[in-house]
Design goal:
By secondary structure, the protein is α/β, with parallel strands linked by helices. The protein folds into 2 domains: 1-43; 64-181 and 226-388, 3-Layer(aba) Sandwich (Rossmann fold). Helix content is 43%, strand content 11%. It contains 11 helices and 11 strands. β1 and β2 form a beta hairpin. The longest helix is centred in the N-terminal third of the chain and has 41 residues, at 2-42. It is globular, with a radius of gyration of 26 Å.
């Protein structure tokens, strides 16, 4: 009997100690998380661009990028800067409404993260346009990895307030294989427990710690995978690409899958972008997406990229046909809505001296991009904004 009483007393004491320990652990965890939250609010070294489902642009940020290994296509040291708007380029003019203001929008092929400030195609384009236009200001709002989902957020959160006169959209590559929105344009105010990602996204609206957790989750569990890691760019040696050839039957199945599931939603997102531009008196210009691969031989290396592995289940020939489905949508939407389309996908040479991997441009490639864009954009702007034009008589530009 005494033994039973002692056992009960011991058990009660152990439970009491366990409760105290759990309470201390809980308090300690709350204190640690609160401390991390406070530190991240004061200084966030992670540099994430998405807070929940809202873009957070890094303003007045300067980074030094070292390209110590590779094929020598990239400068060894590159300074990457963001201005007070969070974009690449000069500060906005004092009287913004009176200038001819242009913003370039796109993913990594617009941002040109690994090129110096004065060697990106938006910078080169601005230099060329300034020869023919007065009071011209151009900024690069490209964000690596952004698709038309992210472009719409950028429009909503930043550009409709800034109201540039013209927005250039280089689109297509980051929309390949994307079907539906992830409620990017919703602003979540209540916790959502339908999935871990949705919970973190809803909590991230209010918490820097949840923001960090969400972005780490999206980094380690991405919804789509590109062959080129845009956060760790590497110059591609085309001679070392694995031989790969897709059968005609497999190619037809891949094409049909994109036609059936992804191309239609992409068209809807593109039309939505044009609608928000026109609603806020911003003139849109569409640029189709060029890449190096296709059913062709690279003139610089002699490599037949049509029969090389370029992406999951795709050789170069198939990958190009898939991308052209999206470029065709861009062309058609432009025709249907009377929007200027600059068809870089067809005009940019498929030559590896212009690319350091399968889609991103070298300094020479960025300069070539700027030449091609300026050739069609200059007469278009001269017709739309004759008050700024100082060049020779502009030829007719359509639309």
């Amino acid at each position: 009997m005494v033994v039973n009483e002692v056992s009960k007393t011991t058990l009660s004491g152990n439970l009491g100690n366990l409760g105290k320990n759990l309470f201390v652990l809980l308090i300690s965890l709350i204190l640690v998380l609160s401390f991390c939250e406070l530190v991240l609010r004061i200084y966030n070294p992670l540099g994430f661009r998405i807070k929940g489902n809202k873009l957070i642009l890094p303003i007045n940020k300067k980074e030094t990028i070292h390209h110590e290994h590779g094929l020598g296509k990239l400068d060894q040291v590159v300074i990457h800067q963001r201005n007070s708007l969070g974009f690449r380029g000069p500060e906005p003019p004092a009287d913004f409404a009176k200038d001819l203001t242009i913003i370039t929008v796109g993913g990594s092929t617009t941002e040109c993260f690994d090129l110096a400030e004065d060697k990106t195609w938006p910078h080169d384009l601005g230099v060329q346009l300034k020869r023919d236009f007065t009071h011209l200001w151009l900024n690069n709002a490209g964000l690596s990895g952004n698709s038309t989902f992210g472009h719409y957020i950028l429009m909503q959160d930043y550009l409709v307030k800034l109201q540039p006169k013209v927005a250039l959209f280089l689109v297509g590559i980051n929309d390949v294989g994307l079907q539906s929105e992830r409620d990017f344009d919703e602003r979540i105010h209540e916790l959502n427990f339908r999935s871990l990602e949705r919970f973190l996204a809803s909590a991230a609206v209010h918490s820097e710690l949840a923001t960090a957790a969400l972005n780490l989750y999206r980094f380690y569990f991405p919804k789509s995978v590109m062959i080129n890691n845009q956060n760790d760019p590497q110059e591609t040696d085309l001679r070392k690409l694995a031989p790969f050839e897709v059968s005609k039957e497999a190619q037809a199945a891949i094409i049909k899958d994109h036609q059936d599931h992804y191309v239609g939603p992409y068209r809807q997102r593109l039309e939505k972008l044009l609608a928000i531009c026109r609603e806020h008196n911003i003139i849109p210009v569409l640029l189709t997406q060029p890449v190096l691969y296709g059913k062709s031989v690279d003139p610089t290396t002699g490599v037949n990229l049509g029969h090389k592995f370029v992406a999951k289940d795709m050789d170069g020939a198939t990958g190009w046909q898939v991308l052209e489905l999206y470029n065709d949508v861009t062309r058609q939407v432009g025709r249907d809505q009377g929007v200027l389309v600059i068809d870089l996908a067809r005009e940019m040479p498929k030559d590896s001296r212009y690319y350091y991997d399968l889609m991103h441009y070298t300094n020479a490639g960025a300069d070539k991009m700027a030449d091609l864009i300026a050739g069609q954009l200059t007469p278009f702007l001269a017709r739309k904004f004759p008050q700024y034009y100082k060049g020779p008589a502009a030829p007719h530009a359509a639309p």
